[in-house]
Amino acid sequence: MLNKFLNKQKQESVQFYLDFLWEMTKRELIIRYKKTYLGFLWAILNPLAQMLIIGTVFSLFIKQDNYYLFIFIGLIFWQFYLNSTDRSSRSFIDSRNLLQKTKFPY
Q1: How confident is the model at residue 29 (pLDDT cuts 50, 70, 90)?
Q2: Distance (Å, rounded) from C-alpha 45 to C-alpha 53?
Q3: Which helix (H) or strand (E) holds 57?
């Protein structure tokens, strides 16, 4: 699909950045789950366990079709938001030396 819209040079540039993004993501996942007992499987089991526990407790009070599906979709977005804000705030703290050296306009 990219062939229709981009010339050869831009295709190579886009492919380079996609490969770079893939490798950085893979590296981050390997580093993050390196010391865990279940490894990358933990990233799948954690939201699944949360869905089952929350779904079982709240399904006693809320009678809704496909309630587990709603919970799972909500947990996916919530976990994304939670992890994004957590990691971004940590990145500011971890790179405070770089931020102190940078001159920001007032």
Answers
A1: confident
A2: 12
A3: helix 41-58
Token duo for residue 93? 């703290």
- pLDDT of residue 51 exceeding 80: yes
Residue type, 58: F
End-to-end alpha carbon distance in the chain:
44
pTM, entire model: 0.51
Residue located via tokens 């279940």 = 38
State how far the Cα of 98 lies from the Cα of 47, in Å rounded to an integer. 35
**What is the rounded distance in angstroms from the CA atom of residue 48 to the CA atom of residue 26?**
22
**Sign (positive or negative) of CA dihedral 35, 37, 41, 46:** negative
